[in-house]
């Protein structure tokens, strides 16, 4: 399938089919013609990322003509793109389709214990699709120039709007909606019919916005990207909203939204710390409806493997989100004593790249809870550290914030279910909790990440 076969300004609605990876549908014996021409194309199974997800297989095959540029080793003196192009959102729009209703093996690859789609695996797919869309937009279709290095810079709030069944076909549609000098924003929507066989139009089950930045593959410096020309009314609205979010990010990076802990803020800190001090100094007298933050911690670690790398040889951002989600889910489960239900991922920054061979540690905790009888909220923080024992160093690569509630059917079976308050033991923990609460409230009021 060649996604570039459409005229430059047309929008092809052909979806990329996702198939199970029990056996590769793309591994055909080389033809005599390929042998005669000395084709340099690697088999799909030897390309980076082939061990991640069925979606990765489908995307790499569909975009093979662009992706092959990364493996043909352009000359060291290959020039950068000489002239920026104007592209429309339609030119980068890409759709992938999960044929869950007819592909049993694919369905089993994505099924969770509650007959829904595994959210961690879906987060991985979203990053893979966003990466493909960024390449489509930034490509100049000139094999004589060196391709850009495109990396995930951040992810805005990802919101689950309804349960996603694994028995009904699923569709993800994404496109570039905003472009800066060297950064692009991509919006993705996961849609699914309300019920199997429904004639109603698909409804949005999950939405996400990814920010990618471009670097010159030779110098490593920021590189300009193709411009964008929104055409429809909705595209122009999405562009304006993304522009506002970009301005907010700039203000935050300059410290424009930094809050000082004075007067009322100090009182909030003292209130949080008061109960924590009782836990530390007089544990027998502590409130049985609360727990220290440090007692909610979990941790796991791994060595990053070559199978988890992207086209640039670094670890997929989607893989990191997948692993962070699995730990956050386990943390919420161990804390609540009931099966958690995912609601959203707050804004995620990718602070530093993670390389093959890195020793990666994920540390989680319940940061705070909201005790609502109808829908209690459990806010989990997961911090990823790249650890180098030989240098005695550890650097944060990512910080993730997940929000869960508990599954209604699980809560209904447990009479007297209650969720504990989380209290800090140190002033640093208290400040961190207040910062997160205020940041989330600020983002909600300004519509950031929606």
Automatic annotation (TrEMBL):
HotDog ACOT-type domain segment(s): 96-218, 294-410
Protein name, entry field: Acyl-coenzyme A thioesterase 9, mitochondrial
Keyword DNA-binding: no
Span list, region Disordered: 1-41
Swiss-Prot/TrEMBL keywords: Hydrolase, Repeat, Transit peptide
Biological processes annotated in GO: acyl-CoA metabolic process
InterPro entries membership: HOTDOG_ACOT, HotDog_dom_sf
Domain of life: Eukaryota
Keyword Hydrolase tagged: yes
An example molecular function term from Gene Ontology annotations: fatty acyl-CoA hydrolase activity
PANTHER family tied to this protein: ACYL-COA THIOESTERASE, ACYL-COENZYME A THIOESTERASE 9, MITOCHONDRIAL
Family under the similarity heading: Belongs to the acyl coenzyme A hydrolase family.
Ranges of biased composition (kind: Polar residues): 20-41
């Amino acid at each position: 399938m060649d996604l570039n076969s459409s005229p430059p300004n047309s929008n092809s609605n052909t979806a990329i089919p996702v198939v199970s990876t029990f056996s590769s549908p793309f591994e055909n014996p080389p033809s005599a013609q390929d042998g005669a021409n000395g084709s340099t194309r690697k088999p799909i199974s030897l390309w980076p990322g082939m061990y991640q997800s069925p979606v990765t297989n489908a995307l790499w095959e569909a975009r093979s003509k662009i992706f092959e540029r990364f493996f043909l080793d352009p000359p060291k003196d290959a020039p950068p793109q000489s002239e920026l192009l104007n592209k429309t959102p339609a030119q980068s729009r890409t759709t992938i389709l999960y044929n869950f209703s007819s592909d049993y093996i694919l369905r089993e690859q994505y099924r969770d214990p509650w007959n829904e789609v595994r959210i961690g695996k879906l987060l991985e797919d979203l990053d893979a699709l966003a990466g493909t869309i960024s390449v489509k937009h930034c490509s100049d279709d000139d094999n004589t120039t060196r391709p850009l290095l495109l990396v995930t810079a951040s992810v805005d709030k990802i919101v689950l709007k309804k349960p996603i069944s694994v028995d009904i076909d699923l569709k993800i549609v994404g496109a570039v909606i905003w472009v800066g000098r060297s950064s692009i924003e991509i919006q993705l929507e996961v849609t699914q019919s309300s019920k199997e066989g429904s004639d109603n139009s698909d409804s949005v089950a999950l939405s996400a916005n990814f920010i990618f930045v471009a670097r010159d593959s030779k110098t490593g410096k920021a590189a300009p990207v193709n411009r964008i020309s929104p055409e429809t009314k909705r595209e122009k609205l999405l562009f304006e909203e993304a522009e506002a979010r970009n301005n907010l990010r700039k203000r935050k990076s300059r410290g424009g939204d930094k809050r000082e802990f004075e007067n009322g803020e100090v009182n909030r800190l003292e209130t949080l710390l008061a109960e924590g001090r009782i836990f530390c100094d007089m544990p027998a007298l502590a409130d049985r409806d609360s727990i220290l933050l440090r007692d909610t911690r979990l941790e796991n670690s791994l060595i990053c493997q070559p199978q988890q790398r992207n086209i640039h040889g670094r670890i997929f951002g989607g893989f990191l989100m997948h692993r962070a989600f699995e730990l956050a889910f386990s943390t919420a489960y161990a804390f609540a004593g009931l099966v958690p239900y995912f609601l959203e991922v707050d804004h995620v920054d990718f602070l530093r790249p993670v390389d093959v061979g890195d020793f990666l540690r994920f540390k989680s905790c319940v940061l705070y809870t909201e005790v609502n009888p109808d829908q209690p909220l459990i806010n989990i923080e997961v911090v990823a550290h790249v650890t180098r024992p030989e240098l005695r160093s550890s650097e944060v690569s990512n910080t993730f914030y997940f929000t869960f509630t508990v599954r209604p059917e699980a809560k209904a079976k447990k009479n007297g279910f209650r969720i504990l308050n989380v209290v800090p033991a140190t002033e640093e923990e208290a400040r961190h909790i207040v910062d997160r609460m205020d940041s989330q409230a600020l983002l909600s009021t300004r519509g950031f990440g929606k």
